[in-house]
Specification:
By secondary structure, the protein is α/β, with parallel strands linked by helices. The protein has 10 helices and 5 strands, in the order αβαβααααββαααβα.
Length: 226
């Protein structure tokens, strides 16, 4: 984003990068953004598509982790794969090295398509938003957090076994602290849904207002938590 008047960043809509640990409410926040007219690009959904049978990334994952991560029907067994990679940081890194290069072109193409359709807000929802290089494509980065008790409860309510939930939380233990420096806004979804939604609505209004001011002034966005 160049910071000059009448550039791409002043003509297009607002780009929001949405990230945070598992179980903290990213998808819920994304849904509330969609209610306000946002086009939401779900990196996890695209990651599922690139490891469908017949895709090069599927073959690469099976080669790396063995036939034990394939269901009897021939699809990727995400639960079995998850048990491997969330117990072994090196395995998780190996998986990400396979999947992320395949996902990135799809995410960027989806951004172009959404902006071509004149979406007022384009949201990239990705747990690896910063590491994947997507944060630099966004005007704002929203970090979605909640307290540990709410996080664990939400994962159990999804049907995730207690041990697996603990494993997933532990695997992302330092994620929030690492992402805070990149975050424009921190959204705490702890407690009731009504309170969390009010925070999100306020953040949307503030972000749109900031984008309007940037457009008028011809200035690039600045970082800083709110």
């Amino acid at each position: 984003m160049s910071g000059e008047p009448d550039t791409e960043s002043t003509r297009r809509g607002l780009r929001v990068g949405l990230t945070g640990p598992i179980g903290c409410g990213k998808s819920t926040v994304a849904r509330w953004l969609a209610d306000r007219g946002a086009a939401v690009i779900d990196a996890d959904l695209l990651a599922r598509e690139v490891v469908e049978p017949g895709q090069p990334a599927f073959d690469a994952v099976v080669e790396a982790f063995g036939r034990g991560v394939v269901t009897p029907e021939g699809h990727l067994d995400r639960a079995a794969l998850g048990r491997i990679v969330f117990a072994d940081p090196a395995a998780l890194t190996r998986l990400e090295a396979i999947v992320h290069p395949a996902v990135r072109p799809r995410i960027l193409a989806a951004v172009v398509a959404a902006e071509g359709a004149r979406a007022p807000i384009v949201v990239i929802e990705a747990i690896r938003l910063v590491e994947g290089g997507y944060a630099e494509e966004c005007d704002e980065v929203w970090l979605v957090l909640c307290d540990l008790g709410d996080q664990a409860l939400r994962l159990r309510e999804r049907g995730m076994p207690h041990d697996e939930a603990g494993q997933r939380i532990a695997a992302q233990g330092d994620l929030a602290s690492r992402l805070r420096t990149a975050a424009t806004r921190v959204i705490d979804t702890s407690g009731s849904s009504d309170v969390a939604r009010a925070k999100v609505e306020a953040a949307i209004d503030a972000a749109l207002n900031a984008a309007t001011e940037r457009s008028r002034a011809g200035t690039a966005p600045s970082d800083g938590n709110s």
